Task: structure prediction
Amino acid sequence: MNIKMANVNVENLKEKNGDVNGDGSVDFKDLVKINQVRLNKADLDEKYIIAADVTGDGNVDFKDLLKINRYRLNKTEL
Result:
């Protein structure tokens, strides 16, 4: 499942890019959360949808999972 951001209000959203569970860090738990959302097993608040779209393409999908994982391995920036 891809999450489209067309209807998300982005004003006053200051969540850290990649931190989709709001714990202040980007780690394995964020990957798990995005995957749960993709599989319709969890939901994300609007502010975390913005944080999850690390590729900036307007969708939360497998590409975001890959980029967050590469960040965790110190291979890219978010």
